[in-house]
Design goal:
Order of helices and strands: HHEEEHHEEHEEHEEEE
Helix content: 25-40%
Structural class: alpha+beta
Strand order of the largest sheet: 4-3-6-7
Number of strands: 11
CATH architecture of the largest domain: Sandwich
CATH topology of the largest domain: Immunoglobulin-like
Shape: elongated
Length: about 240
């Protein structure tokens, strides 16, 4: 047994002595470098293409909208868009019109650009739909290229049911400004009405030498040119002759 082990160890030593470890290490390094170069080329090619995404976003706090955004580095040409029929048939007429399937599109979407599609409903209405899953398929190409890319996004509105709709301080300020503006406009209208009455009203004081008090008569002119008079209370005063 010991002799067999010694013979095996001697054979391994002889094999190692015949191997050029320097050449093997060099070959392995060359393969690793080649793989790295291939990966970098693939990543570069992937970056130089458009990426379209379809997301659900709220506009003005509760309008249900689908936003199509290009997150790639080059311009995309949107060729086709499809919506799941079961969800679309629950929408109102204007929403169904906006969410029609279309395979004859030619819309340019530049990097970081987005287009917003309104589905014609608000979030409380969608949450009462029987089918709350909307599937959107986008087919697009790189600008001036024929190769088509396809992206499919499934939006389940039930998943958003418990999320908070945050209204920023800026939006709150806008709402307060709107209220103040409406109040100022109402006050301005009332002041204009009062101004018209004052412009058409004259007050005349009169008295006699014998009396030490004066009387007032308010004369107003209506829109038809008629004159009406109203006697006022007596005002105590002295008359210097």
């Amino acid at each position: 047994m010991e002799d067999a082990i010694k013979e095996l160890a001697s054979a391994i030593l002889k094999t190692q002595n015949n191997i050029d470890w320097t050449a093997i290490i060099s070959a392995v390094c060359s393969v690793i470098s080649l793989v790295t170069i291939v990966i970098l080329l693939i990543e570069r090619i992937e970056r130089k293409r458009p990426y379209l995404q379809a997301t659900f976003e709220l506009v003005k706090s509760n309008l249900v909208c689908i936003v199509i955004r290009n997150t790639g580095e080059v311009t995309a040409k949107l060729k086709e868009i499809c919506f799941s029929e079961n969800f679309v048939k629950q929408l109102p007429k204007n929403g169904q019109y906006n969410a029609q399937d279309n395979d004859h599109l030619n819309i340019s979407i530049h990097p970081n650009q987005k287009w917003v599609l309104y589905l014609g409903v608000i979030t409380p209405e969608v949450m009462h739909y029987e089918d709350k899953r909307l599937e959107i398929t986008l087919k697009y190409s790189k600008y001036n290229h024929k190769k088509l890319y396809s992206e499919t996004e499934t939006i389940n509105f039930e998943d958003y049911n418990k999320f908070l709709v945050y209204i920023s301080e800026v939006d709150e300020l806008k709402e307060e400004i709107k209220k103040l503006t409406k109040g100022v406009n109402d006050i301005t209208k009332e002041l204009k009405k009062v101004s018209k009455i004052e412009n058409n009203t004259q007050t005349q004081n009169y008295g006699t030498i014998e009396n030490s008090s004066f009387s007032a008569v308010v004369t107003s002119h209506n829109g038809e040119g008629e004159v009406s008079s109203k006697s006022g209370e007596k005002i105590e005063g002295k008359s210097n002759v």
